[in-house]
Amino acid sequence: MPAANHPDYNEELERCRYTLQYIEKSLENTITRKERVDNDIDKVKRHFSSESSQNYIEMLVNTTIQGSLDLKLKNLLTARSKPYFARIDFREGNKSAPEKLYIGKMSLMRDEDQEVIIVDWRAPIANLYYEGRLGEANYQCPDGDISGELSLKRQFSIDEGALHEIFDIDITTNDEFLQSYLGASADNRLKEIVSTIQSEQNKIIRADMWKPLIVQGAAGSGKTTIALHRIAYLIYTFEKSFHPENFMIIAPNRLFLNYISDVLPELGVEKVKQTTFEEFAMELLGKRFKLREANEKLTAFVNNNADEEQVRRNQLIKRSSELKTSMVFKEIVDDYISYVESRFIPKENFKIGSKVLFTHKEINDLFLNQYKMWAIVQRIDEIKKSLTNRLKLRKDAIVNQIYSDCDARVMELKMTMEDSEERQKLIIEAIDQQDEMVKKIESYSKKAVSEYIKKISKFSPFEYYMDLMSDKETFDRIVGDRVDKELRDFTREYTLETLKSGYVEIEDLAPITYLKYCIYGMDEKIPVKHIVIDEAQDFSVFQLYVLKKIVKDSSFTILGDLCQGIHSYRGIRDWNDLIKNVFDDRRSEFLTLEQSYRTTVEIMDAANKVIDRIKDRNLIKAKPVIRHGEKVRVFKKGSTKEIAADIAEKILQLRNDGFKSTAVICKTMSDCKNMLSYLKKDFDDIYVMTGKEAVYKTGPVIVPSYLSKGLEFDVVLIANAGKSEYSEDELDIKLLYVCMTRPLHKLYVYYHGELSPLLEGIADE
Q1: pTM assigned to the model
Q2: Where does 508-660 show beta strands of DSSP type E?
Q3: Which residue ranges form the domains of the chain, and what is each CATH number?
Q4: For the chain, is the Cβ count within 10 Å smaller at the N or the C terminus?
């Protein structure tokens, strides 16, 4: 309700003013202290001496303080506008009176007596706001279970320091408050979710860090923002154990990372590693590959105008992608590695002269059995140590034997020959031969081990992968009857053709990285302790298996939606495959988010009718929150030009109505470029999203269907949903579903010719 109408308005207004005043006071103190620290650092830098340990310690301490002050300053500046969003009154145990706690995005304590002014939303007691009900309540903290009585849960709408609304609630959020949040524009929602986190979302945010967590979340269920808030929560909870650098977000593309890039700083979190699987794999491999654009393949698959021969080839490409991203292919790579192992040690003995120090069989046994716990190349270092040690022991024995043999020869000459020039000559020859042999042994022994090790051929992970694909006889023997001959031949030839052209595909990165891990091991320990993977349905089980193997000590939070699996030919189709093959199913936790908070009931119902065309028990539909809007509107036009003209009119009207972000979604990139040629004369700021944008900009944008996944807009206009564009193929169904679940408020659908059968009966024309 409007704040002024609430019976406690005066009390809450006074509290709001007091908090804002203290924030201003804290700001002044922080700025003063920061200036002093900045000056101290400048002084140390000017007079810095690398030989002075005191200089180094001062620099280290002040730099740490400077970083914490920077973060505090940023938080205080944010709190100036919205200091807190909720209040709870909780009486702990047998205490006589409840404590009034105000919850915000940061914590604030009074310097003079450490009185809590604002409780950080991540603090254990704040869980009462998200999951507690009025009456008896409890929360978990490091000291154990704290019980008591929760007598008040209150929400506030505060903006620019002004108290606008107050709601008293029992469950997580008041419908009116939630409706207000859901009605906001797309560019504000990611940042403001902390005040409206629902109970099921809160469970994900605060779930055990060390249990693999897999979340099936419907479109609009808040997966991405929940993932980011989970990282913020874990960093806060484990701040004494880990640094932000120990957390990593892996997203499907760079555009998606740019889209979320300002959310973590808003939550007070900096320095979290944000990457894509492709970038991370190349970082691990220490090599930049030219990566073939993944969406080119998808575009070919959704081309409904391809001739029969191209359709057949596309089917083989799709099946090949499925194979290379499967655990079957992981087994094929394992068998290839065993083949490499069997030929790794040269078939010759290690010897000095005619003396065998190690037989090939002995060395091979060390390599294949005794040192098997190490990666292949790392085993060579161990073998080198064994050869060196054996050589040192045997060399001394051999040299001693040479001396003994020489002494015996001299004694024999003295015993069998009279003292003469001839005897003296033979004795000198024996001693010279002895010295020459010892010299040779000493010289050879210095390089004997390295000479032997040089004979062991080592290739790069890419070269090994190329070798697997190049040798048809070996490839066929290793693959065997796990794959039919047509697919086996096509996969090898298609992959070899791609590699020889100087490119790799995303499907090749997991096996190449796995080869690096198995053959070379990782160069250094990766400091990541927790990995969050968003849009995980587009990752393969093999990719995630490789990540789990390489980042050994890390835990995982994996979020995705199988309904949006537009790359399912190389992605996950069943979360159980992931649990079974990558994580211990007894320890893993699987949660679902079915409630969709993004779009209206009308839009979500229409989208669900589309996804219903796929009969798959693993697909969990979204349940829209009760927020109504206008019906999905479908418009038939005579041509693309007419569609573009009507879209231009709509965008102008939407701007006048105050909508900030509008997306025109076309099926492919070429469709987008064609649409741009019509619309650019009306809009200077409209552009086509390519996925490589350094900055995500609001405003009118044209985006291909496959890049719209994970994004949201105030209004979406689907440029052509004709029968020729969206067939009843599973991939087309998922693409159209993705397009339809992007808007917050309005969805307009255009077509010319015949309407896609997927949309029949969804809305009146």
Answers
A1: 0.85
A2: 530-533, 555-560, 589-593, 595-596, 623-624, 633-636
A3: 3-196 (no CATH), 213-289+522-596 (3.40.50.300), 350-454 (no CATH), 611-759 (3.40.50.300)
A4: C
